[in-house]
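Page 42, continued from yesterday. The earlier attempt failed because a stray header line got pasted into the input along with the sequence. Redoing it now with the clean sequence only.
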Amino acid sequence: MKKDIIITIGRQFGSGGKCVAEVLGRKLGIPVYDQELIMKAAQESGFSAEFFEQSDEKRRFFSLSSIFATAYSSETENYMSDKGLFRIQCETIRNIAAQGSAVIVGRCSDYVLRDMENKLDVFLTSPLEKRAARVAERQGIDYAKAMETVEREDRNREEYYNYYTFGNWGVASNYDLCIDSDKLGDEGTADMIIEFARRAGLL
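This time it went through. Structure tokens are written below.
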């Protein structure tokens, strides 16, 4: 690549966001951050990775004593809000972007890095029934259970994104490129993202 680029991937649950990101990383030779972002945030903040995993793209409150199993009292100071975790995660995302090219999956990264110039914001979608079938196969569950999982996780992601960005998750105007990943598959979707980035002068 001639210059650094950040590609953010927003995605409906089961649309293959992580898989497409991994293909992009391989084709472009750049790092991909998904669950790795959680680990990095934990390392940089000093909190347990479990603390971030439980709040990953969800809005909740957690007791510090339940995570660290130490002698904290039960007062409100022993709770870290989702906003506190979100601020740590935002700083981690900015630090990653400052280091060079990367693909960052979810976690409002398009919004967090909204002032960056050489950035491509992508949203992946796919028909509900296709996503449910993919999740059923991936998780080894029946189709009905997979459908419930997809719908629940989509609600979680929408509430999380809308709350922290004051925007609208999945609305085309928020992104540079929206793709139905079922049409081209993981490899083809990644190829289209790369081609779009090149035509846009980002690569």
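Notes: The CA atoms of residues 2 and 80 lie 42 Å apart.
Reminder to self: strip header lines before submitting.
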